[in-house]
Request: fold
Amino acid sequence: MNTPLAYFDEMHRSDDPWGFRSRWYEERKRNLLLAMLPARRYQRGWEVGCSTGELSARLAERCDRLLASDGSDAAVALAAHRLQAHANAEVMRLTQPEEWPPGRFDLIVFSEVGYFLGHDELRRTVARFAGSLAGSGVLIAGHWRRSFAEATMTGDEVHRILEASLPMQRCMSYRDADVVLQGWSVEPDSVAEKEGIV
Reply:
């Protein structure tokens, strides 16, 4: 990870770094991401870079089993506390791309993480995602589009690398001045097509 883990440990001394609970921007972004998920339910999900576990708690409601991971010990502690009411959720300390969970997932969420990796680390991480997705699995990514000091690249650049590197089709996309949210799957059918509406 290009951004030092000490930065994330320091940020997580607050139980609401970046205003995940208090800012409408963050709540709205979570709601947009959750609304974009093409399935109502997932068997096994993985949230990479779970931070405080705010999004993880909502994902746990949609997954039979959820792995929430972060490279920061302080973040892992906050997420474990936030998720203690969700027996189907597990929190692990993992740093990508070096550390990787076993097994396959039908949902991987990669939100607000990519620009803390170096370009090579991001490409290696993205290359491993495809091998960790179950047959009809989906990868959804969301990133802040504006520049900030700790980032190694912009959110748009993260998503260009995802688009160029993933051996899957993009099946959903949302973009405004602040955030980009996109999803990829080997199964490109829309929700309406899957439900036989069209």
Q: What stands out?
A: The beta strands are 42-48, 63-70, 89-93, 105-111, 133-144, 169-175, 179-185. Residues 5-194 form a domain with the Rossmann fold fold (CATH 3.40.50.150).
